[in-house]
Amino acid sequence: MQFGDLAEVFDRLEKTSSRLEMTDILAEFFRNVKPEEIRKTIYLSVGRLHPDFVPLELGMADKLVLKAIASVSGRRSEEVEDLWTKTGDPGEVAEMLIAKKKQMTLFSEPLSFQNVIEGLTAIENASGKDSQDKKMKLLARMLHDSSPLEARYLCRIVTGRMRVGAGTMTAMDALASAFASKEDRPDIERAFNITCDMGLVAETLASGGLDAVKGIEVSVGNPVKVMLAERLRSLPEIMERLGGKCAFEYKYDGIRVQAHIKKGPGGFVKLFSRRLEDLTSNFPDIGEALLRQLKGREAIVEGECVAYDPDTGTLQPFQNVTHRRKKHGMEKAVEDIPVRIFLFDMLYCNGEDYTLKPYSFRRMRLESSFKDDDSERYDRIGYTSRAIIDSDEKAQKFFDGAIAARCEGIMAKSLSEDSVYRAGSRGFLWIKYKKDYTQALVDSFDLTVVGAFYGMGKRAGKYGALLMAAYDPDTGRFGTACKLGTGFDDAFLDAMPGLLEKYRCETKPASLDAEMVPDVWFIPGVVLEVTAADISLSPIHTIAYGTVKEDAGLGLRFPRFTGRVRDDKTPEQCTTASEIVEFYRMQEDRDNGDVE
Ligand code: AMP
């Protein structure tokens, strides 16, 4: 395959906002290329050479790319920078200048896909004192042989600016259409949810068919998409929904960690956040304890890391554990902030995939998998407090105990035979109930930034307000939920442009439905925690559009930023459309006096 073929596909995808059309374009392309090329294409479509959880990035700075463009096009660097200031996109600059250059020179080799992969791999691996110069030259070499369109995508790939609009959902539809059928889509989706590697799933499907995909299993080192909980408005409702008997666990307020542990030669421990970031270096003490105390050979377990006072055994507020997410001063943070992991699930053990086993089985195995540690000041591994609950009274008592122990609330878990670990989905097998639900104000929402409005007055020259969106997993689309302009302190207002820059895009993101038009668009990336006075029907906001009322969406009233950037959540793990509808209904009931 030539790189030009792929550049053309990217261009066609970018020009349409119809998901169906994108699916057709991709399916046709997948049918015509080799399985390993499909795999790399999937990574390249988001500007990477590996799946998301591999922490290697091409990450070339814009200025370095501009230097390469100047050297290939023979333009002065001021001229190149000038164009960059106007467009904000090195891809566009390269396209314009290479187009002009091409009119003058016709000597270049066609750029093969393989050459591009090799060139990008060399860029990624360049290290040492002169690594920046090496990267610049490697890019310049590829730009020399590229067409204007190829240059656009090369520069976007290396600067992390790929925005072709076709997300994972569309890729899965296209794979099903190219190599299987619509009915097989759930098998493809499960394989992705347990490996987090769409490239692997695509290559397996293209080369071995659906049976090979069905054979994909959880494996140590590949994160599994986390299972999420639904929420209900009262404890009796939860009891009823779970058949009158279920397990309750404390809901700890910390950082969720999925630990992959392998002992022996070639062994390792890797800790992933729910966003699939590698958190191993943030919790070295927890990683070591898990490796030391695991009885078996290998395992995948999940738990919540919470700041903890070893002398009194009391849990510390969420803010304390966030110091462990810092980039610098980690050694000191490890010493100053003792952390304990409260384990709640086991997804894999000694070669056996547990994700399709019921909750009670997983929990039983979990509790017998780690040794106690008496040699240290305190045991870093614990299990979430838990009880089997079969009445509303016991439910209330357990909830009160959780709050007294400084937890956020409880997690109710189904005891039924089909209570599998539903990787990547939110469902009623787990139901959360938090202290906030009992208060007049609704709970906080995690929303993603999709736009910004320039500020005025004191905020001139900065962003003054943000357009925030929630996610609808049923459609795979985002919808706006509010314009947020309150709760920002000066430090956050200053930091905001930097935080958002890498998500900036020229037009409305393809996965977003929006009526309101901000000054700047962002693809969903940054998640902020927001509170609101209530939720109302909205003629302008698009989340849950048509669900409560035919021609209206739902909007948050008097939204306020809590100061918490939820960098542990992906935009798809934001508050969902159905949760917002649930809040709206909860509030209607409260207003009607139906909820105590
Ligand atoms: P939320 O972030 O409000 O959607 O609540 C779900 C989160 O609660 C999970 O992602 C975990 O980080 C956290 N959590 C705390 N305790 C538990 C528990 N016992 N079982 C499952 N999740 C828990």
TrEMBL record:
InterPro entries reported for this sequence: ATP-dep_DNA_ligase, DNA_ligae_ATP-dep_bac/arc, DNA_ligase_ATP-dep, DNA_ligase_ATP-dep_C, DNA_ligase_ATP-dep_cent, DNA_ligase_ATP-dep_CS, DNA_ligase_ATP-dep_N, DNA_ligase_N_sf
Chain ranges of the ATP-dependent DNA ligase family profile domain: 332-472
Catalytic activity: ATP + (deoxyribonucleotide)n-3'-hydroxyl + 5'-phospho-(deoxyribonucleotide)m = (deoxyribonucleotide)n+m + AMP + diphosphate
Protein name (Swiss-Prot/TrEMBL): DNA ligase
Keywords for this protein: ATP-binding, Cell cycle, Cell division, DNA damage, DNA recombination, DNA repair, DNA replication, Ligase, Magnesium, Metal-binding, Nucleotide-binding
Listed PROSITE patterns: DNA_LIGASE_A1, DNA_LIGASE_A3
Species annotation: Methanomethylophilus alvi (strain Mx1201)
Lineage: Archaea, Methanobacteriati, Thermoplasmatota, Thermoplasmata, Methanomassiliicoccales
EC number, as in UniProt: 6.5.1.1
